[in-house]
Write a structure and sequence with these properties.
By secondary structure, the protein is an alpha/beta fold. It has 21 helices and 10 strands. The chain binds adenosine-5'-triphosphate. Keywords: ATP-binding, Membrane, Nucleotide-binding, Transmembrane, Transmembrane helix. This is ABC transporter ATP-binding protein.
């Protein structure tokens, strides 16, 4: 109920449209009683008394009432569609906005396919609640009330008999509503499971082909798809019993009224026309009750979907994205003091970290895989928040700084360069929104990327494909470097690529990186000897702790872990 009410609370944003719909619904519905009234008049008065002159106007009245009913109906549907699309747009927009404010930790635990399911499927399911809730629910309730009043006016005894099935219908609806929650949740879960697998597999299609996993993955997909089929069939089977059951109850009502009406006729209490009109009215009374059952089914599906939407909307966003202070300028003096952090496990991922970078220095982080190098730089950008100690930039603790400002002051070149599915230009201007073409080419030249971009069919306007799939690893790297150059940040975080590229490309990337690191404080997760050699200080990490620090020559002469890393080629020549 809470979820349904929250969906409906979105409607408050458009009170005028809601009121107009209500007006059309009430006016249109009032028209349904005209035809039974005309029928009664024709059968009981006009025909017995052969009032030819009244027949034409009465028929025209019935026709006019139907015309008005459907005209208002058409208006209501048009209003409803616009209204519903506006609400859905708001809901999608709110959901996307919230998604962007959620911490990375949240995304670590949520498959992409699951999020896609919420935006792509759950929101349309919520939408059904809105369209049908208003279209069927509102009209049905008004119709039941209006027709009910007319039924009691026409014949109280028959009206009371007509109400006999109502308690049973209500009990049936209640039972169905209570039990359907879990069935619908299971459908949403199964759908999300299938979509998550699909998303993962499409993204990993190269790996599937390379490892010839097609058959295995097909059966995994079929298993997820079968789970969705089973959950959907469960909902449908119960519905297949419930709906005809409810239909039968309303038919019992019709038969009861016919029975009692026939007795009334024989006893001379009522006229034939009254009974015929009553039976017509009764149909208009039971039809919307059946619609309400259909609506109940839709609302239950929408509620399960709505829960998933509101779960995201209710998740706590990252703090300090707009609040927090900024500094007038950054010189790039970075200090880690006794920093500790854990992703949630018992053993801290990094602990007791003390590290210092003077403005303009290059700091190299080396260590075996899983040592905590990426974690350390993720703490500086506040992608994750440290649990112990403090990190300062120019003396200001980063946990006091405005995150958006902090991140805009830091350039981050990741090992796997992520490019968005757009043009080269669109990927570059992320670094500087208002960059001119001249600036873009200048940055590309510094990143040694102007040559290949110049040779692309449409130059800067060439589409790079999803994740930059149409470019080589080396080309993507250099576009990322150009993007970071455009941003011109005082602090740079660089995760050196380990992927092999040919010597010439490597040289080009290296000179581009050297230019990028010039005159700014740089933290490099280093995999190459050439980088560590030039570093002002190298920190050697192992299992989340700094075990050695110093310059290359210094550390080699100590003959410790670093010297071993060099010998074992973990740092490439
Ligand atoms: N998002 C995450 N959630 C949970 N644990 C994580 C997460 N990211 C990393 N870890 C764990 O934290 C530890 C340190 O990982 P990190 O990526 O910092 O290592 P690294 O030194 O950068 O390794 P590599 O050189 O292989 O990239 C690893 O044990 C890893 O499994």
């Amino acid at each position: 109920m809470k979820t349904t009410l929250r969906v409906f609370s979105y409607l408050r944003r458009y009170p005028l449209m809601a009121a107009a719909q209500l007006f059309c619904a009430i006016t249109g519905t009032l028209m349904v009683v005209v035809f039974p009234a005309v029928t009664r008049e024709v059968l009981d008065v006009v025909v017995p008394k052969a009032q030819w002159d009244r027949l034409g106007p009465l028929i025209l009245t019935a026709l006019g009432a139907y015309f008005a009913q459907h005209l208002f109906n058409s208006l209501r549907i048009m209003l409803n569609n616009t209204f519903e699309q506006k609400v859905i747009y708001d809901l999608r927009s709110d959901l996307y906005q919230r998604l962007q404010t959620l911490p990375l930790r949240w995304f670590d635990n949520r498959p992409t396919g699951d999020i896609m399911t919420t935006v792509g499927e759950d929101i349309p399911n919520v939408e059904r609640v809105l369209i049908d809730g208003i279209e069927q629910g509102l009209v049905a309730i008004i119709q039941i009330a209006v027709v009910g009043v007319f039924m009691f006016q026409a014949d109280v005894t028959l009206a009371l008999w007509a109400l006999v099935p109502i308690p049973f219908l209500a009990a049936g609806a209640l039972g169905y509503t209570r039990s359907s929650k879990d069935r619908h949740r299971a459908v949403r879960r199964a759908s999300s499971g299938m979509n998550s697998l699909l998303h993962d597999n499409v993204a990993g299609m190269r790996q599937i082909k390379a490892y010839a996993m097609e058959a295995e993955e097909h059966s995994r997909f079929n298993a997820a798809s079968a789970a969705l089929k089973a959950a959907s069939l469960h909902v449908m089977r119960i519905w297949a019993i419930y709906r005809p059951g409810m239909h039968f109850l309303t038919s019992v009502g019709m038969v009861l009224v016919l029975w009692m009406g026939a007795r009334g006729l024989m006893e001379g209490r009522i006229e034939k026309g009254d009974l015929a009109a009553f039976l017509l009215l009764l149909k208009f009374f039971y039809d919307p009750i059946e619609q309400l059952h259909q609506l109940n089914q839709i609302i239950q599906g929408g509620r399960a979907a709505g829960e998933r939407v509101f779960e995201i909307l209710d998740t706590e966003p990252e703090t300090d994205t707009v609040e927090g202070r900024t500094l007038p300028a950054i010189t790039g003096h970075v200090r880690y003091e006794n920093v500790g952090f854990s992703y949630g496990g018992k053993i801290p991922t990094v602990h007791g970290i003390n590290l210092e970078a003077q403005p303009g220095q290059t700091i190299a982080l080396v260590g075996s895989t899983g040592a905590g190098k990426s974690t350390l730089i993720n703490l500086l950008t506040r992608f994750y928040e440290y649990d112990e100690g403090v990190i300062t930039i120019d003396g200001a603790p980063v946990h006091e700084l405005n995150k958006a400002w902090l991140r805009s002051s830091i350039g981050y070149v990741t090992q796997e360069s992520f490019l968005f599915n757009g043009t080269v230009r669109e990927n570059l201007v992320i670094g500087k929104r208002n960059a001119t073409d001249e600036e873009l080419w200048e940055a590309l030249a510094s990143a040694n990327a102007d040559g290949f971009v110049g040779r692309l069919e449409k130059g800067l306007d060439t589409k790079v494909g999803e994740r930059g799939v149409k470019l080589s690893v080396g080309e993507k790297q250099r576009i990322s470097i150009a993007r970071a150059l455009l941003r011109n940040p005082p602090i740079l975080l660089l995760d050196e690529a380990t992927a092999s590229v040919d010597t010439e490309t490597e040289r080009q990337i290296q000179t581009a990186l050297d230019r990028l690191m010039e005159n700014r404080t740089s933290f490099v997760i280093a995999h190459r000897l050439s980088t560590v050699r030039h570093a002002d200080c190298i920190y050697v990490l192992n299992q989340g702790k700094i075990l050695e620090k110093g310059t290359h020559d210094n550390l080699v002469s100590q003959n410790g872990i670093y010297a071993n890393l060099c010998k074992s080629s973990l740092i490439k020549n």
